[in-house]
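Q: I'm writing a short methods note and want an example of a predicted protein-small molecule complex. Could you take the sequence and the SMILES for zinc ion and return the bound structure as tokens? Please keep the output block clean; save any remarks for afterwards.
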Amino acid sequence: MQLALGVDCGGTRIRCGLVNRDGEIVGALHQREPRGEKTRATYVRAIITTITDALRDANQVAGIGIGMKGLVDHARGVSIYPPGIADWQNVPLAELIRRETGLPTWIENDVRVAALGEHWRGAAQGVDDFVFVILGTGIGAAIFREGKLARGISSSAGEWGHTIIAFGDQNFRCDCGQFGHWEALASGKSLARRAQQWIESGRGQALLDYAGGARDQITGQWIANAAWQGNPIAIEILRETGTYIGIGLANIINVENPALIVLGGGMIESANVWLETAHAAALKLAMKHPASSARIIPSALNANHAGILGAAACVWDQIGKPNQ
Ligand SMILES: [Zn+2]
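A: Understood, no commentary inside the block.
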């Protein structure tokens, strides 16, 4: 049985697993965190050790696929710039791993990898025009057009998070430095900022009381938990954020004309509170024609497996189509 090794390189840890041609994970997952300060050397060492662990008992491994944060030049196998790692610039990661293991290796941006996973075994099976949107502490997107990933001329296609949805806004600063970007207004990070706005305007006293007066304690995760426990202001904040999620989705519908938008990322855990609002806003704001054919649904993959599965799909895409 031929296997592919899928490697998911996250911000804090590296995880990998062997995947067969049917998209099933075979055997145990392996994971590691870089030791000490996160530098190019410690991060690459952690990737190699994790891969070596996973390959120890495996034979018939056809190749390695790696999902990597940040800008990736898939064709050259280069990780251009992953956020959060010191001294990392243009690292030929595929070649490094190939030399170390003797196996053909491909790398791809982590959001595109997740989209490959959705197309292969997730919510987008059989759908060739779709957009995968990851709603986490930031917002990333990957675009499938006519069955293929769209990467753009310099690998940065799909940066929907940095489109302006609130020109003139001075409250929500994006990590890129600009104001009014979709990511700044609709990601998990925006929840805490929005809660502070509610408190500053006097409408959020009940939320502050709920936090025992500890304003610093109010993070995105805390708000999601408070909403889960039924706090009406936390629910209102999530719904307000849902409207902003919907504005960005309307833009995607207008420009990409997708059959499907698949939503993933940490915000999905509270989707039961905000998804309906986001959906209604998207359909109201988008043009009627593309809106009539666009479905919006959450990811169907186990969040712990999606990155590994998608990275393995990179391998099968290169050396022969998987069983569909
Ligand atoms: Zn931005």
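A: Remarks, as requested: The mean pLDDT is 94. The chain has two domains: 3-118+303-319, 125-298.
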